[in-house]
Amino acid sequence: xxxxxxxxxxxxxxxxxxxxxxxxxxxxxxxxxxxxxxxxxxxxxxxxxxxxxxxxxxxxxxxxxxxxxxxxxxxxxxxxxxxxxxxxxxxxxxxxxxxxxxxxxxxxxxxxxxxxxxxxxxxxxxxxxxxx
Length: 132
Hints:
By secondary structure, this protein is α+β, with helices and mostly antiparallel strands. 35% of the residues lie in helices and 17% in strands. It has a two-stranded antiparallel sheet. A two-stranded antiparallel ribbon has the order 3-4. The radius of gyration is 20 Å and the shape is elongated. It starts with a helix and ends with a strand.
């Protein structure tokens, strides 16, 4: 019985793959380079966009405000609504537009971080700047 189910599932997956390849051919889409996986939040908002888009989305901004609370620069208490979403690895240098590469910074510290080419470690709990 298990073998028959496994064969059925394998056939369905094969059918889906064939359908996607045909659809990609019709739409002239490169499945390797044009399709971008996305992390989706509770309400369906896209949170991780890879390199598909440069600027932070409203859903990402809400997630950042929740995670960071405000400016992540040590000792700064500027609220999230006044902060910029900063790419820790700059987008122009190949950094993705994902929550794991964003940090909230007030305009003053955003400028400072760029002037000093400062980087940070980002995880689900927050941001830790590597200050020199």
